[in-house]
Design a protein that fits this description.
It contains 18 helices and 17 strands. With 528 residues, it is α/β, with parallel strands linked by helices.
Length: 528
């Protein structure tokens, strides 16, 4: 399969059987989403066959989506405004053409049956509750809600239809932690097969039983979860490398015999036999070493105050929407605090209050003496000079670093080869986010605030970031829904919900234990 003149796959093959839980992994741009398009027959491979059981219903959740018209959230989840009319139209077209026995007709009919089932609304409401919707949200117009909430409603519709094969492209992107736990538990018990693309390591650890890696233009299969895949991949590399080295030694020994005895009449026939033996060998190529996280040391920030920041009696409202009333909060030096809670609860607003970026109606915010604050947002690009290149932007932020060190850090955050010479003005939103992240890491403040720093990063880059932040000597307050990232970093949890902030002086598992959040997610599976 080629795309834009670049070969993505050569003689690649794999199987997904009923009941399988499969993760598709590989660096950004390797062809994971393209492979989904091939399975969905949206793209045609240059050669090869996509064989599918004609009775298989496939459901696909893309990364992004918007609402059109005045459909409600419940309309989206039941498909009665958009999906169902489209299915009915297509069924009529196929029937008129006499094509009523092919796989497309069978699949469309199965989806139509699922969405016209008498229990469809009950099922949809159950899925919506599990994914974090309140009863009062069901009849809200979808276009009034964010893209993330619309994607949740589309995910609910997919689960209502119960496809035989679920194709999920980054399904956790728009979920808060409780909804993520609910989906994780749901998929563990799902009767169909699941094929997913995800950068959420913990989600894959919990769900998958097989991993296919796109590497060297092939699909290489491994059995087990993500940790099993990493171990088996390393073992495979060591075995291939040993085989390559042994063959090279054999070739060298044969060639030495040929070179030594080819000119000696009594040995020449033997030498020619050795030469033919070399020619008959099927050469074992030297394997590429598996990509590993880039390790670098974040420079020590200036020493901050014992009390990094304090909020006293904060009242904060957007018009008539009161987000906080009488909020008190202290962040001590060296703490690594994660903010968790439902989407829309006020986590990002709290981070902005701490950063001094939004006005509040009452109260005090005190940044400690000698406090140097940095705020990282995935949407923040105003600090970039549009005339500078990527490399120039980082060099300007870290004048004491050598250029090769800067290039190494940029490479680990997916800026490679010619990317570092791009002007920042032409970067995509994701590239700008990553560049801002690098700038914070090479010249860190002593109080670092981060809102979803792992968005736009592949799983290996997330690991590089995690390793760097583990050695960061300042104070960290962050928002994330990446459980593996949270578990590795957080020493304190702030649960933000309905204007209240509850503090848990321990890691993420301590928070789950004390609040019973994991039990709540499991209970939501059986709730009517």
């Amino acid at each position: 399969m080629t795309l834009g003149g670049r070969v993505l796959f050569e003689n690649a093959s794999f199987n997904v059987n009923y009941g399988d839980r499969v993760a598709l992994v590989g660096p950004n741009g390797a062809g994971k989403t393209t492979l989904f398009s091939i399975i969905l027959k949206q793209k045609i491979p240059d050669s090869g066959v996509v064989a599918r059981d004609e009775w298989t219903m496939v459901g696909y959740l893309p990364q992004e989506g918007e609402a059109h018209g005045d459909e409600t959230i419940l309309d989206v989840a039941t498909g009665r405004v958009d999906e169902l009319p489209q299915l009915e139209k297509r069924l009529h077209e196929l029937e008129a053409a006499g094509e009523v026995s092919g796989p497309e007709y069978l699949e469309a009919h199965a989806k139509h049956d699922a969405l016209t089932d008498a229990q469809v609304e009950t099922k949809a409401k159950k899925m919506l509750r599990g994914l974090g919707y309140r009863e009062t949200d069901f009849n809200r117009k979808a276009k009034e809600m964010s893209g993330g909430w619309i994607m949740r409603a589309r995910l609910a519709r997919l689960l209502v239809m119960e496809p035989d094969l679920l194709l999920l492209d980054e399904p956790t992107n728009h979920l808060d932690l409780l909804a993520l736990l609910w989906l994780q538990n749901y998929l563990k018990n799902y009767s169909g097969a699941v094929l997913l693309i995800s950068h959420d390591r913990q989600f894959m650890e919990e769900i998958v039983t097989q991993v296919y890696e796109i590497a060297e233009k092939k699909l290489i299969g491994y059995t087990g979860n993500y940790t099993d895949y990493l171990r088996q991949r390393e073992e495979r590399y060591e075995q291939q490398l040993a085989a390559h080295k042994n063959q090279q030694k054999e070739i060298q020994a044969l060639q030495e015999f040929v070179d030594r005895f080819r000119a000696i009449p009594s040995k020449s026939s033997q030498a020619m036999s050795k030469l033919k033996q070399i020619e008959r060998l099927e050469l074992i190529e030297k394997p590429l070493a598996p990509r590993k996280p880039f390790r670098f040391q974040i420079p020590p920030p200036p020493r901050g105050p014992q009390r990094a920041v304090q909020l006293r009696n904060i009242h904060m409202a957007y018009g008539t929407n009161h987000v906080y009333r009488g909020l008190d909060l202290i962040v001590e030096r060296g703490e690594r605090t994660v903010l968790v809670g439902p989407n829309g609860a006020g986590k990002s607003t709290l981070l902005k209050i701490i950063a001094g970026l939004v006005p509040f109606q009452q109260g005090e915010r005190d940044l400690g003496h000698n406090g140097v604050l940095g705020y990282y947002s995935q949407h923040r690009a105003a600090s970039l000079d549009p005339e500078r290149t990527v490399l120039e932007e980082v060099v300007a932020s870290a004048p004491v670093m050598r250029e090769d060190e800067v290039r190494g850090v940029l490479g680990s955050f997916m800026f490679r080869k010619d990317d570092i010479h791009k002007k920042t003005a032409v970067l995509s939103g994701g590239e700008k986010s990553r560049l801002n992240l690098v700038k914070f890491l090479v010249d860190p403040p002593n109080l670092l605030l981060m809102d979803e720093p792992t968005t736009h990063l592949d799983i290996l880059t997330v690991e590089s970031l995690t390793l760097a932040l583990e050695r960061y000597e300042g104070t960290l307050v962050f928002i994330s829904h990446d459980v593996h990232f949270i578990r590795r970093l957080a020493t304190k949890v702030l649960h933000v919900n309905a204007g209240q902030v509850a503090s848990y002086p321990g890691g993420y598992d301590y928070f789950l234990e004390k609040t019973g959040a994991a039990d709540d997610a499991r209970a939501a599976l059986t709730a009517g």
